[in-house]
Amino acid sequence: MKIFNQPKIKEVSQKDKSKPKIVAKKSTTRTIALGFALIILAGTLLLTLPGATRSGRGNLLNSLFTATSATCVTGLAVVDTYQNWTLFGQLVILGMIQVGGLGFMTIGVYISVLLKRRIGLQERETLHESVNTLEIAGVVRLVKKIVQGALLIEGTGAVLLATRFIPRFGWRNGVYFSIFHAVSSFCNAGFDLMGIHEAYSSLVEFEGDIVVNLVLCTLILVGGIGFIVWDDVMRNKWHFHKYLLHTKIVLTTTIVLTIVGTISFLLSERNGVFADMNGLERFLGALFSSVTPRTAGFNTVDTASLSNTGKLMTMMLMFIGGSPGSTAGGVKTTTIVVLVFYAIAMIGNREDINMFGRRLTDEVVKKANAVIMINFTLAMLAAMFIMGMQPMLALTDVVFEVLSAIGTAGMTTGITRDLNTISRLIVIVLMYCGRLGSLSFALIFAQKSAVNSVRQPQEKIIVG
């Protein structure tokens, strides 16, 4: 049974084809952008309340940074989550992670469905843009699967983590920590409560724990493949040939990146951070280091101690990120694959870009190029500004930080707390941009497009 209805094709003029689509796109994008901004504002106000911090004194900039990082499911932190925030503050952060990961439109529509409220066309259009589905048809049914599936997966992850956390932290903290980290992992947020033992230690004390490593890796990957992939896999089970092209690309790329990343870290860090580990600990460390940059933000080894090769590999994985319509950030796996196959087609002097027996459209290639260019440009401009204001910071660390922010990866070499006010504001903008998507962020400021009746003459230039 098909989940997406194919609309009938009718002939329309060039003017009719371009204008309504662009206007609707900008309208829904601005709605989503405003929604996330309001959530960040509300979270900031809640975190500035005296009851949100252990000291009883709220800091506006720290609250804004934390609220943005949580809502944009990034994980960068200027204060330790456990040691700075009270239980109330931590629950506020957890709520923003869940809303930011699933999307406020997804949760809002799901609540409306429970209340048996009618979902209008405008809401469906905004939801379609928020969830990043291929078609509007069936988007409300998909929302039910997203929320129910997320709660089931997070709950299962929490139960498994509880088998390791309860013996170590006791019943009360063990259950709470299990839920917090399951949600944070699935939403690719990277916030942790391990500051109960040591500030900013993340999951280093669990570097050799099989259950914790495998559960968190699974939660990160499942959250990062995208909701449309879930639906496709549930409908077609193990019949790979029946999957959508999108699903085939996402699953294949995710597997390849995980395997290649794991092997790369095993080789590059064998005499580095893995030097004093046994075979199992090295494998778990390499696997976790391969998965967490896309884009969870946890770490089981000291990120700052990685070799240059390890840091470069981490930056590449953070830049790529997860897949469209997921809880992860980055330029997305499909974007990278499209450009790789485009380059292969150019080298082979082929006009079409073919994958799994299907041909990609020119529009997809143009969008992929735009996403890469905008993300890279924003990251490099941010790095230049931060280096200009704080020249004492190492270039590698700054580039690592900005790629982590715009990719909503949340990993850091430790300089987040050393950033001054302006640098922190720059990182905040990058995290917000990364959650919306760089192209969507740019579209917010786009002017109303005019349809030109006369096109400029063509002329060739030399490229490459």
Give a nutshell description of this structure:
By secondary structure, the protein is an all-alpha fold. It has helices spanning 14-47, 60-71, 81-84, 87-102, 104-114, 121-131, 139-186, 210-224, 227-236, 245-268, 279-291, 308-320, 333-347, 362-389, 395-406, 421-436, 438-444; strands spanning 354-355, 358-359. A hairpin with a 2-residue loop joins strand 1 (354-355) and strand 2.
Describe this structure in words.
The protein is an all-alpha fold and 464 residues long. The protein is 62% helix and 1% strand. The chain contains 17 helices and 2 strands.
Outline the fold blueprint:
Elements: H1 14-47, H2 60-71, H3 81-84, H4 87-102, H5 104-114, H6 121-131, H7 139-186, H8 210-224, H9 227-236, H10 245-268, H11 279-291, H12 308-320, H13 333-347, E1 354-355, E2 358-359, H14 362-389, H15 395-406, H16 421-436, H17 438-444
Antiparallel strand pairs: 1-2
Helix pairs in contact: 1-2, 1-4, 1-6, 1-17, 2-4, 2-16, 4-7, 5-7, 7-8, 8-11, 9-10, 10-11, 10-12, 12-15, 13-14, 14-15, 14-16, 15-16, 16-17
Range of helix content: 55-70%
Name the beta content range: under 5%
Strand line-up in the sheet with most strands:
1-2
**Molecular shape:** globular
Number of beta-strand segments: 2
> Rg from C-alpha positions?
22 Å
For the biggest sheet, the summary is: 2 strands, antiparallel
Low-confidence runs: 1-24
Total count of helical runs of at least 4 residues: 17
Strand-and-helix sequence, N→C?
HHHHHHHHHHHHHEEHHHH
Mean pLDDT across all residues, rounded?
87
Cα separation of the termini: 47 Å
Structural class category: mainly alpha
